[in-house]
Amino acid sequence: MQDNTLDFYNSNAIDYAADGETPNPKLFDFLKRCKPAGRILELGTGSGTDASAIVNAGFQLDATDGSSGLAAIAAKRLGQPVRTMMFDELSAIEEYDGIYACASLTHVPRTQLGPIIRRVHSALVKGGIVWASFKTGTAEGHDALGRYYNYLSPEELQEYWSDNGQWSGIEIECWTGSAYDKRSTDWAAVIAVR
Description:
Protein name: Class I SAM-dependent methyltransferase
GO molecular function, one term: methyltransferase activity
Shape: globular
InterPro entries: SAM-dependent_MTases_sf (IPR029063)
Structural class: alpha/beta
Largest sheet: 7 strands, mixed
CATH class: Alpha Beta
Number of strands: 9
Pfam families: Methyltransf_23
Oligomer: single chain
CATH superfamily: Vaccinia Virus protein VP39
CATH architecture: 3-Layer(aba) Sandwich
Order of helices and strands: HHHEHEHEEHEEEHEE
Strand order of the largest sheet: 3-2-1-4-5-9-8
Keywords: Methyltransferase, Transferase
Strand content: 25-35%
């Protein structure tokens, strides 16, 4: 994650956490596809809203965030530790039934995304599933708040994921929604099964 993006989340952790109290509705379709009561890794836990829903649904959760400020807020909310971890620090091998990355890997520079996808692939058990959402676009850059986004097209996402792991299946789901900045945003989620 770019330093100015991490600085934004650390400096605005309290305001950012207060903004989202409703879990991502797309989370529940992901959970239905995971092994019941399985082990899930969340990359980019943020304030812990989705993490709380994952735990309440009976899953074992390893929550992580690159922002120490957000990790502390999420840990308090969850009543369990949230590890401060950058994506390139993921070293798990075949440990997770599911990996959930809501609007987090979208901050990874394009030049670093392939190696991160390979780490995600390695961390999943055979048959494990990843759900990762991205703001879509055609050129990487920063938003009005100074946060870096890789802004990939759905076709580019398909290519990145296909080229960086032997997946048994990859789906791309697209929709228009919003984000923290309250602007209309085009999104794409990668749903990939190892």
